[in-house]
Design brief:
CheW-like domain-containing protein, OB fold (Dihydrolipoamide Acetyltransferase, E2P), 5-stranded mixed beta sheet, CheW-like_dom_sf, CheW-lke_dom, single chain, CheW
Length: 181
């Protein structure tokens, strides 16, 4: 009898496994992944800003709005978004006291605030951006005071700093919460 014939099937599989382990190149070493920060890049009154993705529930087109009496001019009204009422805020008018031109429809950054949906009307939404943590900078470009109050940091992108617009800071501002006349 030869040696192969004397081995049990189990022994044969164990020997085969050892040969495979010796011949295998090994598993690839997991490289450390760099942390990424994601945000929504949008344009407001000529400024490119990035809102943290964690603070934006949805991005949408501007909706038909039902005007509300007795509210500040920057409250555009209420809209129906798939059966949910959304308070629509003109962010340009709130921050800069200027309206968008009548031809600009704008886009909505929909956020959840206090169990309700709030749509922040911005001029355009450019899209999602991902930044490496190494791109983070505490430096921000010079911005007008109402906008500067909502900017918390920035990210370097192609030699320019993209300011991070904190929606959380905006909605916690007592002036933003006081929408009644």
């Amino acid at each position: 009898m030869s040696a192969i014939e004397q081995r049990s099937p189990y022994d044969y599989l164990v020997q085969l496994e050892r040969k495979c382990r010796v011949a295998s190149p090994g598993l690839p070493v997991a490289e450390a992944q760099q942390q990424q920060w994601s945000g929504v890049l949008f344009n407001l009154a000529g400024y490119e800003l990035v809102a943290p993705m964690s603070e934006v529930a949805e991005i949408g087109d501007m909706l038909p709005v039902a005007r509300l009496p007795g509210v500040k001019p920057w409250v555009m009204g209420l809209a129906n978004m798939r059966g949910n009422l959304v308070a629509i805020i003109d962010l340009r008018r709130y921050l800069f006291a200027t309206d968008a031109s009548a031809t600009e429809a704008g886009r909505l950054l929909v956020i959840r605030h206090g169990g309700s949906l709030v749509g922040l009307r911005v001029d355009t939404v450019i899209g999602m951006r991902h930044f490496l943590e190494t791109q983070r900078t505490g430096d921000t470009p010079s911005l007008p005071p109402p906008l500067e109050a909502c900017v918390v940091e920035g990210f370097l992108d192609q030699g320019m700093v993209k300011p991070v617009f904190s929606i959380r800071r905006l909605v916690n501002d007592p002036a933003f919460q006081d929408a009644a006349l």
